[in-house]
UniProtKB/TrEMBL annotation:
One of its GO terms (molecular function) is steroid dehydrogenase activity, acting on the CH-CH group of donors. This is FAD-binding dehydrogenase. InterPro entries: FAD-dep_OxRdtase_2_FAD-bd, FAD/NAD-bd_sf, KsdD_DH, Succ_DH/fumarate_Rdtase_cat_sf. Keywords: Flavoprotein, Oxidoreductase. Pfam families: FAD_binding_2. Residues 6-532 form the FAD-dependent oxidoreductase 2 FAD-binding domain.
């Protein structure tokens, strides 16, 4: 079957939906294609925590946070480390995005009904100098409704266009190639897959039952990255992060397979910065998995003691929540694929949050009543469920029992009670005074100077072995695949560029497939809250540019 449209969007995730809505708003006919069934409408953004990077927002100002474009740009460039010729467009995308985050982004979203949790989070704290990696101030704004909440207005806009006849959304349509005539991308062709009734995010059948072609004047690739395919992740793994782990868990559905990146290259697109990636080191196995190898990321506060697999403490400033890729690079030198958090019940109750919409039913469901439950004694129900049922958790009343349990979970005898006691008691001695030399203890005390951390994020500084705060808990941590930071090179109009630096006529890219803009606007490292925002920003640019190019 051959169809026609002004614009084809490949991928019904957040970036694709934004692009489709913007193109249809401009009066263009749009066809959205996705290989997954309708149950997965919205893609991986649905599973996200909904964090967005904003600069000098009303939420920040209410909490006494002084932010500015200059400070945000200082933090972005200090983290990105742009140092390649291929960073020409990524750097320009980054600057445009920081300006967007400080200007139009919040009112644009607010006008569509998006609201934010009033306490701004502080992710990627850095711990280096003012010009180094990390956020100088809290900028992580949690969407009221989490991932589904940020998807909601764009799903609504697209469906409104569907009802008006301007947009058609075709699920179970897998793009296998771009059609090119005289160097111009003129559409797509691919396979119709068998219907599937799997639950959202679960792996669906790849049985082919037919074929299709869509002719168009513009094609927007918004198909995501490579995080669901560990072989692709390992193939792109950079030497600066050591050797890739033999064992990883997966933070995205299997459909995040990178196919369209390779297909776009075959049509003349240039892939840049493929060795830049963002994987977390605080992953735990989901006791109730949706997709193969399903992992959940812990969003840690700064109090947990972080140990290597052998029980040695991680070096400064590799504390929980400070430097994701710095910690990953260090852990890859240890010879083991896992590490440990050691904490207690008081820290779990205050600090241990889990990333994802399904792990935060109060925020996702916009329930003030449930949210107030976070202020009462006890961890959130999802955290308690992991503590009870998750295979990575060890709960004990003594350090000896904890060491035995850690070895049982890891299947080795690397942790000794003596070694564990030395590390824990040395840390606890630092709690006797309001000053000391342990920089993690200094950092957590400083964090409580921020009202948001003191209210809901950072536990009262006390000894780990304080009897009031038991039992003791250890959590085995895995590397969890997540984001592709490199991608298809694009100019500021989201036009895909070829090897000669010229635009490939008719081809656009947005979201993770474009490295969230330009082929890698984050550079080497992310400031967090910038992935969904990158989908919004690049999807908007791609949709508007594609619509403008239609004759």
């Amino acid at each position: 079957m051959t169809r026609t449209a002004d614009v084809v969007v490949v991928g019904a995730g957040l970036a694709g939906l934004v692009a489709a809505a913007e193109a249809a708003d401009a009066g263009r006919s749009v066809t959205v294609l996705d290989q997954e069934p309708v149950q997965s409408f919205g893609g991986q953004a649905y599973w996200s925590f909904g964090g967005l990077f904003l600069v000098d927002s009303p939420e920040q100002r209410r909490l006494g946070i002084r932010d500015s474009v200059d400070l945000a740009w200082q933090d972005w460039t200090g983290s990105a480390g742009f140092d390649r010729a291929e960073d020409f467009w990524p750097r320009r995308w980054a600057r445009a995005y920081v300006d967007f985050a400080a200007g139009e982004k919040r009112p644009w979203l607010h006008g569509m009904g998006v609201r934010f949790f009033p306490v701004v989070g502080w992710a990627e704290r850095g711990g280096y100098t003012a010009q180094g990696h990390g956020n100088s101030v809290p900028r992580f704004h949690i969407t009221w409704g989490t991932g589904p909440g940020i998807l909601e207005p764009f799903v609504r806009r697209v469906l409104d266009h569907v009802h008006a006849g301007r947009v058609q959304v075709l699920f179970r349509h897998r793009v296998d190639g771009l059609t090119v005539q005289d160097g111009v991308v003129t559409g797509v062709q691919g396979a119709v897959l068998a219907p599937s009734d799997v639950t959202r995010g679960a792996s669906s059948s790849r049985e082919v039952v037919g074929g299709f072609t869509v002719d168009a004047q513009a094609v927007v690739v918004a198909s995501g990255g490579i995080g669901g395919d560990h072989d692709l992740v390992r193939a792109a793994w950079p030497a600066r992060l050591g050797t890739p782990p033999e064992h990883m868990i997966t933070g995205v559905p299997a459909s995040v397979d990178g196919r369209m990146i390779g297909i776009s290259q075959q049509a003349g697109a240039r892939l840049v910065n493929a060795d830049r990636m963002w994987h977390y080191v605080e992953g735990i196995k989901n006791w109730d998995p949706v997709w193969p190898g399903h992992g959940i990321r812990i969003l840690p506060g700064p109090s947990s003691l972080w140990l290597e697999a052998t029980g040695a403490r991680l070096p400064v400033p590799l504390f929980p929540g400070f430097d994701t890729l710095g910690t990953l690079a260090h852990l890859r030198t240890t010879g083991y694929d896992h590490s440990w958090f050691v904490l207690n019940q008081a820290i779990i109750e205050k600090e241990l949050a889990l990333s994802g919409s399904e792990q935060n039913p109060d925020l996702t469901g916009r329930s003030v009543r449930q949210l107030l439950g976070r202020l009462t004694k006890g961890a959130t129900p999802p955290v308690e469920a992991f503590k009870e049922k998750g295979e990575d958790f060890v709960v004990a009343s003594t350090l000896g029992e904890l060491a035995t349990g850690m070895n049982r979970v890891a299947g080795n005898d690397l942790i000794t009670e003596t070694g564990l006691r030395e590390v824990v008691e040395a840390r606890d001695r630092e709690m006797a005074n309001p000053f000391g030399k342990d920089l993690q203890v200094t950092a957590l005390r400083a964090a409580r100077a921020y009202l948001g951390d003191r209210l809901i994020r950072v536990a009262t500084p006390r000894a780990l072995l304080d009897e009031r705060d038991g039992p003791l808990v250890a959590v085995r941590l895995h590397v969890i695949t997540r984001k592709t930071l490199g991608g298809l090179e694009t100019d500021l109009d989201a036009r895909v560029l070829g090897a000669d630096g010229a635009a490939v006529p008719g081809l656009y890219a947005a979201g993770e497939a474009a490295g969230f803009g330009g082929g890698g606007m984050h550079g080497y490292r992310s400031l967090e809250g910038t992935f969904l925002g990158g989908c919004l920003f690049s999807g908007r640019a791609a949709g508007r540019s594609a619509a403008a190019a239609v004759g």
